[in-house]
Amino acid sequence: MSHSSTFDQHVGACQRVGCGLPLAQALAISTRLEGVVQDSPGVELAEISGAVRRRCQQIARIDVLVAGAGLDGVVASLRRSPDVGLIAESSPSQVRVIVQDALEVEIKLVPVAQFGAAWLFSTGSGAHYRALGLRAEELGLRLSEAGLLRGDQVVAARTEQEMFSALGLPYIPPELREGAGEVEAARAGELPRLVGLGALRGDLHVRTNWSDGQASLETMVAAARTLGREYIAITDALYPLSHGFDEAALTRQIAEIRGLRARSPGIGILCGVELNPAADGSLSVSAALLDQLDLVGVALYSDFEQTRAEATARVVRALENPRVAVFLIPTCRASGPCLPLRLDFDAVIAAAVRTGTALGIDPRPECFPEREQFIRAAARAGAKLLINSNARTPAALGDADHAAIYMARRAWAERGQALNTLPLPEFLRALKVWDRPIAKAAPRRRTTMVRHRVQH
Question: With DSSP H G I counted as helix, E B as strand and the rest as coil, what are the percentages for the chain, rounded to 5?
Answer without folding.
Answer: 40, 20, 40
